[in-house]
């Protein structure tokens, strides 16, 4: 008999959701991670349950505006040339998916999955007793130039066609909603169905507490290697050998480092994200506010104002890019007026495949091994539904979501 029914490698938002969903269904679950739950990429996110975020980073505008995006000091995109040269196939696949037809296809698949996001995470919020952390004020997107405001039309209409609700907000109303804005507002859109969390780390902490109270086991160690057989899975973690009926790889950007899991064959890359925290400044905004041209969010957090976002394509091991942090600080002041020195700064690693779709489903090498990683910017939003789908698969159930677009053996272009 195996030590556990299901072992989950990774305790970020996705791994924690997989573990809690399985434990709620009565399985014997092991959660393995060397760090506290939610302390990785999940810690530093934009706090937003972004059910509107169906448009991938792979967008045709990346191709048309690539020189400016790469070389301008005001670009929300940063690219390490050394990293690109070391990973040419990933970069070429990413760019191939920026063409109009693949980008539309990707957006459709993300929209289909996002339509189930609230149904996936709401039961976990309830189980964790974390309703007080959820704020239903929507998300406000603003554009400060007429050209960018006009250019946003196609994307907004695409979202609407994919079932994402939003409403146009006049400049005067936008400033009434968010009087702290100091930008010239040329256009504003309210995604009124979105919600945000006062503290994502606290949500995951409470989810872990619920997991433990239901009988779940936590091992503070990395899963270093996995070996599958017809009868189950053997895991090596911190010198221990453990067995489980099934294992879930949910280690985000680090999923490729687990030997024997088959993840090293996948083109899993990293979009590095940054944030700055300003204690005592949370009053500057009352909901997540995104500035379209700058590519980042201002978010009210329980511990202050969080400025977060942008995309940096570079390796996991590269040092923090101080120019990214300086960019966020500079744009934050343009958006909200003078700010004090930040209390803290953060760099995190968003796990990203070159088509911006996660991998959710069985490993090609064994249905005893399930993958749940690669959620790029929307790991928090998709964590609950991913956990529920993984629990379905572990139990041999047919999920109510078509998982073929998220298969590990799909074509990545």
Automatic annotation (TrEMBL):
Record-level Gene Ontology MF annotations: oxidoreductase activity
Any Pfam family matching the protein: DAO
UniProt keywords, alphabetically: Oxidoreductase
Top EC group: oxidoreductase
InterPro entries cross-referenced by the UniProt entry: FAD-dep_OxRdtase, FAD/NAD-bd_sf
EC number: 1.4.99.6
Protein name per the record: D-amino acid dehydrogenase small subunit
Gene behind the chain: dadA_2
């Amino acid at each position: 008999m195996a030590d556990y029914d299901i072992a989950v490698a990774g305790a970020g938002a996705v791994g924690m959701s997989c573990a809690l969903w399985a434990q709620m269904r009565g399985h014997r679950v092991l959660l393995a991670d060397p760090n506290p739950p939610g302390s990785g990429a999940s810690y530093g996110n934009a706090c937003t349950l972004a059910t509107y975020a169906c448009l991938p980073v792979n967008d045709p505008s990346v191709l048309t505006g690539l020189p400016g995006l790469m070389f301008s000091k005001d670009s929300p995109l940063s690219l390490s040339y050394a990293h690109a040269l070391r990973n040419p196939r990933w970069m070429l696949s990413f760019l191939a998916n920026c063409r109009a037809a693949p980008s539309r296809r990707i957006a459709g698949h993300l929209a289909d999955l996002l339509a189930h996001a609230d149904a996936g995470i709401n039961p976990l919020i309830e189980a964790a007793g974390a309703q007080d952390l959820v704020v239903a004020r929507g998300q406000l997107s603003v554009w400060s130039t007429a050209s960018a405001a006009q250019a946003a039309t196609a994307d907004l209409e695409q979202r609407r066609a994919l079932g994402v609700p939003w409403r146009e907000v006049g400049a005067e109303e936008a400033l009434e909603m968010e009087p702290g804005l100091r930008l010239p507002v040329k256009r504003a859109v309210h995604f009124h169905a979105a919600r945000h969390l006062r503290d994502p780390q606290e949500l995951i902490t409470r989810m872990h507490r619920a997991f433990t109270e239901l009988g779940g086991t936590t091992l503070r160690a990395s899963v270093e290697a996995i070996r599958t057989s017809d009868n189950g899975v053997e895991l090596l973690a911190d010198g221990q050998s453990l067995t489980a009926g099934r294992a879930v790889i949910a280690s985000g950007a680090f999923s490729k480092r687990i030997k024997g899991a088959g993840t090293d064959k996948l083109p899993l890359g990293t979009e590095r994200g940054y944030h700055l925290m300003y204690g005592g400044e949370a009053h500057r905004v009352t909901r997540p506010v995104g500035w379209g041209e700058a590519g980042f969010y201002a978010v009210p957090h329980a511990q202050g104002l969080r400025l977060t976002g942008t995309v940096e394509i570079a390796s996991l091991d590269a040092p923090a890019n101080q120019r990214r942090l300086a960019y966020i600080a500079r744009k934050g002041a343009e958006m909200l007026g003078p700010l004090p020195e930040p209390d803290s700064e953060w760099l995190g690693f968003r796990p990203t495949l070159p088509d911006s779709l996660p991998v959710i489903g069985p490993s090609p090498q064994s249905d005893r091994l399930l993958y749940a990683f690669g959620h790029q910017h929307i790991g928090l939003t998709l964590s609950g539904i991913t956990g529920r789908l993984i629990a379905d698969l572990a139990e041999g159930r047919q999920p109510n979501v078509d998982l073929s677009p998220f298969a590990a053996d799909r074509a990545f272009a």
